[in-house]
From TrEMBL:
Name of the protein this chain belongs to: SGNH hydrolase domain-containing protein
Pfam families per the UniProt record, alphabetical: Acyl_transf_3 (PF01757), SGNH (PF19040)
Subcellular location: Cell membrane
Membrane topology according to the record: Multi-pass membrane protein
Ranges of residues in domain Acyltransferase: 56-385
The UniProt record lists the keyword Cell membrane: yes
Gene source species: Rugosimonospora acidiphila
Biased composition (Low complexity): 9-41
Gene3D superfamilies, per database record: SGNH hydrolase
GO molecular function, one term: hydrolase activity
InterPro entries for this protein: Acyl_transf_3_dom, Acyltransferase_3, SGNH, SGNH_hydro_sf
SUPFAM superfamilies in UniProt: SGNH hydrolase
Amino acid sequence: MSEHSPRTVVGSGSSVVSPSLTNAPGGQHPHPPGEGAEPAGRASRSEQRRSGFRPDIEGLRAIAVLAVVIYHAGALVVGGGYVGVDVFFVISGFLITTNLYREVETRGRISFGSFYGRRMIRLLPASALVVVATVAASWLWMSPLVAKAVAKDGIAAALYGINVRLAVQGTNYLSAARPPSPLQHFWSLAVEEQFYLIWPLLLVIASGVWLRRRPSRRAAAITLAVLAAGSLALCVWQTQASEPWAYFGIQARAWELAAGALVALAAPRLARLPRIAAELTMWAGLAGVLVAVFVYTDATVFPGYAAVLPVAGAALVIAGGCGPARGVPTVLGTAPLQMFGRLSYSWYLWHWPVLIVGQSIVGHTLSVWLGLGLAFGALLPAWLSMRLIENPIRFRASLRRRPRRGLIIGASLSTVSVGAAGLVGLLPMHLNGSGHATNTATVVADGSAADAAARLSALIATSAQNTAMPANLVPAVTAAGGDLPTDTGCLASLDATSTADAIAAGCDSYGDKTSTTTLVLFGDSHTEQWFDAFNTVARQRHWRLVVLAKSGCTPANALTTKLNTQRAFTECATWRADALRVIASLKPAMVLMSTRTYGGPPVDKDNQLVPGDPDQLWTTALMDTATQVKQTGAQVILMQDTPDPRGASVPDCVAQYTKAVQTCALPASTAVYPSRRVATVAAAQAAAMPVIDPLPWFCTATTCPPIIGNTLVYRDDSHVSATYIRLLTPLLSDALATALH
């Protein structure tokens, strides 16, 4: 199992992993610069106050966006740069609620049409442009398979639902390792807009103005505090239970926007703070934000309790700024920070697509300096889109006076975004190969197993030199993702803690169901990928086949980190114990154990690394489980892992380099984790347990080609295609016979 964090980094020495990441500063100035207010530094503080412009908030935006952009570029000096999302949520909650409650107090109601019209002309011109440009760039410069996925992301982003899409993907083992989308940063805009679908109405109800009485800030604040407390509690719980949903879900992020809204409701009282209290409040808040930015890392369990620090910090900065503080506002009001603050929304929108598409163009992980260059280079399209598109529409008086026009423009822009993304999704992919490669099935099927192995070895050597994708490729790269084993429900989900569902699905009744000789496949998805071959062998030899496999869960007696979380995979430990109980009750003749070699290092219950050599710890844990199985009287057979693309989707790569498929080959030195393999063999020999090594069926001494003969070897960034597994059945049968004698 590999570990995937929802916080994505592009940079030197780091692989690009899934789900992630930033927040758009989606709030609005009560009176932005150029509309009733002079920019910071040109008007006095009192004049800025009267205009409603808060240069300290503009500077706080700048700190947040700089932290996010630098983090995404791979400069991990800001290891917690992802907390910029939390700062932006607080700012947005404050500014939007300030505007809404002013309307409640002065007019006794909220004009929902005006509110949503303003939101649309504020956000959609720039975001629609970025969605369309990114989908087009993905089609031009990224793998066609990736471009199709980006088109779906574009539709989800335009409809403010991409956070749900990312959360679902993050909890699905087979899709959680998808490469980061150049549009996934739109998740935060989705969270904000989902919040603002309900907040204006809730504010009207909570304030009591609908009862034709004077609005009550206290009643609104109490209601909001209860909502925030519930959301925070859910966030803390869900961070442990399902971190992708805690990270991307509105239910676990609403409290951050509510924190800013509570400051807005308390603003009149905060304005009466003594100067020293306001100063200390702002300095404490700024320190909290900076500590989170520089001290947090990808190992920080987030959001959960850890999100309280940047959220509280941002709220304190804004709260202190409601009073007569001068120190922090002076710092935050400096010209460079004001510039980055003004550009923050556009820069946020552009920087991530530039990084992801740029990485695809260069063909490798970006160095820190190249990442920083691209990220700061995104300031140019950000500035152009702000000056030429965003501001002209945003500040157009006729649109601001007539909300219906804003709604019409917003709906039109959303329709254009969805239509453009949908069109790209429907475009045919030109993935025609050239020439007809040797039929791999024929090579392996003819003659004895020894002869087939020799012929396959020769075919692998030839295939390692091939450059073009063959026209008779099977499975096609467009179908590779669905080329799965034919078992039904035997791969338990990440959250499963019992084998009961698998047994109920008939996973104990494959092969020859009437046989009294039982073979158990026990392991993770790298074990389950062999199902079709083992099922055929079991039928041929009249064995009953039982499949006990769980996503991302090694059979080794060790805790690892759960996929897409920062906590120990306790569900795996519970499931493993149940699987061992089932194995003991079955009294099988044979148990084959296998696991992904690149599993995370062992951790303790607090998700801290267990001290010691990881290879030795891993091997000891694997042999501990093997010994427990052997005590049931079963013959234990260990199977080495298949070569691992280690996070790089082979079908995506082949689709992008149809005339240079050797670009997608795996170096044997890194694809097989030699040190752990050697340790496993040594331990197995000492325990008199046979080992099956499939490496010769995939690689030469130096290279593991992505296509062998006419067969695509991998279905994703980790697993072997079911088509290729089935072709290996004769070789597996022979290796299994050798292991049992």
